[in-house]
Amino acid sequence: MRKRKQAEKIIYERYDFSAGEWIRYLAAGCGLGGFAVWLCYHAWPALPAGAPIAFWYVKAKKKQLAEDRKKRLNYHFKDVLSALRTALAAGYSVENGISEAFRDIKKLYGPRDETVRELERMSAQLRLQIPAGELFKELGDRSQVEDIRNFAEVLVIAKHTGGRLDKVLEDTERTIREKIETLQEIDAAQAAKRYEQQIMSLVPVGMILYLRFSFAGFIEQLYGNPAGAAVMSVCLGVYLFAFWLAKRMIRAEE
Q: Rounded CA gap, 78 and 17, in Å?
């Protein structure tokens, strides 16, 4: 029989685009940069000025997707602990409980979810006699998720001291679940602020479009001459700085 390929190790500090994602996000970035050039300069020779915007968009999208993946791992971890606690209560060992948790979480989130892939990888490594505590510690260090690292420490201590794993896991699962649910509530509250920031960032664009189509003669003098290009460049720079600052402020509150 052919050996099943071990799940690939995920590097959470970076996000690697697939070929389809490269095409999609690069096209979106180029479109955004081209639109900004058209809006501010209305001249084909200025099109290369949109390249930094396209580059920034692709870079920001990579960072956002990496953060979203890490956040999903953290949020789904509470379901892993719940499934593991149920398995231990049914008489399974921690090692067999991880395999049971893998099957339960796979039904819940599907095979492409990073939590499912991590549990699949753990199940394969457990067959190589690697301790469960070491596997959770490695995942916690690789993902930089504090709750996973804390659980790994608790698991190692409980196994070394001979404590009741089911009781320890129940207390740990309750504590981590409460913490993650609080984080989810905070994230839901922050979603309204993020939406508001996105709407506010569209206001200047809407104003320029309104002037372009309703009062073309009033704004047309800003195009096709060095002075107008300089004014629009300053406006674009201020807008991009304000957009970046608003994102930073919202991120600082999370």
A: 28
Digit-coded pLDDT (tens) for 15-52 = 989 899 999 999 999 999 999 888 888 877 778 888 99
Rounded Cα distance between 234 and 43, Å, is 17
Provide the b/e sequence for 125-143 (b: ≥16 CB within 10 Å). Answer: bbeeeeebbebbbbbbeeb
- Residue 41: CB partners within 8 Å, gap ≥ 6? 49, 223, 229, 232
Half-sphere exposure of 244 (CA within 13 A, CB side): 10
Q: Which pLDDT value is given to residue 46? A: 78
Q: Provide DSSP, 121-168.
A: HHHHHHTTT--HHHHHHHHHHHHT-HHHHHHHHHHHHHHHHT--HHHH
Here the tokens at position 27 are 């096209």
Tell me which DSSP letter residue 223 carries.
S
Tokens of 11: 């590097």
Measure the CA angle with vertex 54, ends 50 and 60; round to 5°: 140
